[in-house]
Hints:
- By secondary structure, this protein is of the alpha+beta class.
- It is 34% helix and 17% strand.
- The protein folds into 2 domains: 4-86 and 238-346, 3-Layer(aba) Sandwich (Beta-lactamase); 92-206, DD-peptidase/beta-lactamase superfamily (Beta-lactamase), CATH 3.40.710.
- The protein has helices at residues 7-24, 51-64, 94-107, 117-120, 138-142, 157-162, 179-193, 197-206, 239-250, 263-269, 334-346; strands at 40-41, 68-73, 76-82, 88-89, 219-222, 232-237, 254-255, 258-259, 274-278, 281-283, 288-290, 299-304, 308-313, 318-323.
Amino acid sequence: MKYKNCFREMIEILVVAVFFFIAVTSYGRMAFCAETHDLVYVIPEEIGWSTVKLEETKSYAEEIGSAAVMALYDGKVFFSWGDIAKKYLVHSIRKPFLSALYGIYVNRGLIDLDKNLQELGIDDIAPVLTLEEKKATIRDLLMSRSGIYHPAAAEAKEMIKSRPKIGSHQPGSFFYYNNWDFNALGTIFEKVTGKKIFEAFKEEIADPIGMQDFLLTDGRYQLEWEKSLHPAYHFRMTARDMARFALLYQNNGQWGNLQIIPRNWIKESAFPYSAHALHGDSYGYMWSIIPEESGFGAGFYHTGMGVHFLVVLPDAKLVFIHRVDTDKKFDITFKQIRQLLYMIANARIAE
């Protein structure tokens, strides 16, 4: 979480490198073959990047301890380094995965975002939710504005330390990056739809977009019964499958001839409902929001442990994926990840 306030600096680094190129380049094809779903890899020079400079970037990625890095322009992979086929825990990037599923089932009329917890029959272990807390709606939880400050599974120490006092804010009135909200959304999704999160993700998203590596066994629940009834839902995923998910969002939820995530949901979920709420960054429906003034137009991203990045910049036609093996001890810093982005940006061939 502490790194998110620096993300805007990363965006500014890329602006100069691609601004002119965007202005003169026509819309290209997505990074997959309609029949095989294969990502399209191109020689960097074909879309204006220098292979020589990107080789220097690869050396730096290895030096700082990145596990895998991918960068795509206009749907084409022009930079790919590391073990992009190894499954790493995504940490908090699980949240936009669930947001995508909500969009699909809301569109089908199976989920009503304005239903409250009382109507849904959602509660927790002691301290049980108050009648006021049960007024929180699904929409409030998606925005992380429930006003419910109950202990939750998979909470970071920073979350626990900054958690407001119970009853200090009414539902919908205050933003707090809250694992209780995110975890309860998982419970609600499964209760309302009758589908398990990982099964729904595979059926609705992973299989249709041709994820190469994702299996049902790559999902697991984290139950902490002494804290809450609602488990966290963890994903392991490869960089190349994350790139496909990002491309799906970059292309307004469409993959080939399939409209997988409703176009209007992407717009709705990437709206900054909580402006400058999360260390200076705005927040939508389980997405951090990149502002218009970034130079790319609106975009969105999420991080995991401050070192995993999934970034979607639709107007700039850019996708960026960064992975770290967080199963092991790591000491990579945000400053180093920023330098890595700077090197990719500077590998742009001058027009």
